[in-house]
UniProtKB/TrEMBL annotation:
This is Glutaredoxin-C6. Keywords: Cytoplasm, Redox-active center. Residues 48-114 form the Glutaredoxin domain. It comes from the Eukaryota. Belongs to the glutaredoxin family. CC-type subfamily. Its main location: cytoplasm. It comes from Forsythia ovata. PROSITE patterns: GLUTAREDOXIN_2. It is found in: Cytoplasm. One of its GO terms (cellular component) is cytoplasm.
Length: 146
């Protein structure tokens, strides 16, 4: 696959792709693209996406919860300078309500809308609205037979 520098299977069933800058791959990374624009593009292109730090235990719990309902989100591990996009007031990412109001990562987006962090995801699940939201964006189907 062009543009993929390194492919690593993860213990939780996901994969980690390290991409190289190229203009010939459908997975192309634009070197000129700002961090903020790249994050906005990823939010738009992925129905369920988590932005995280490397080895984030809260992100792991978020992935486990989502996988129990049948969804395997895209997970983007950010570098320290990229995490600032989620905490700087007025940035594109903070135009959404990130991490239950505290800003930062992990930050979950479903259907291009910020859900927040782990606490917000758990609250959405416990209120019974998580599955409906996932169905609304098309990542889950109603398989109940009446």
């Amino acid at each position: 696959m062009q543009g993929v520098r390194h492919y690593v299977p993860l213990s939780d069933g996901g994969v980690r792709l390290e991409l190289t800058p190229t203009t010939t791959s459908p997975l192309a990374i634009s070197v000129a693209e700002s961090t903020e624009m790249r994050i906005q593009r990823l939010i738009y292109e992925n129905p369920v996406i988590i932005f995280s730090r490397s080895s984030c235990c809260m992100c792991h719990v978020m992935k486990l919860l989502l996988s129990t309902v049948g969804v395997h989100p895209t997970v983007i591990e950010l570098e320290e300078d990229e995490i600032g996009v989620f905490t700087v007031q007025g940035s594109a990412a903070t135009n959404h309500h990130v991490n239950g109001g505290g800003g930062g990562v992990p930050a979950l987006y479903i259907g291009g809308t910020s859900v927040g962090g782990l606490e917000s995801l758990v609250a959405l699940h416990l209120s019974g609205h998580l599955v409906a939201k996932l169905m609304e964006v098309g990542v889950l189907r109603n398989t109940m037979v009446f």
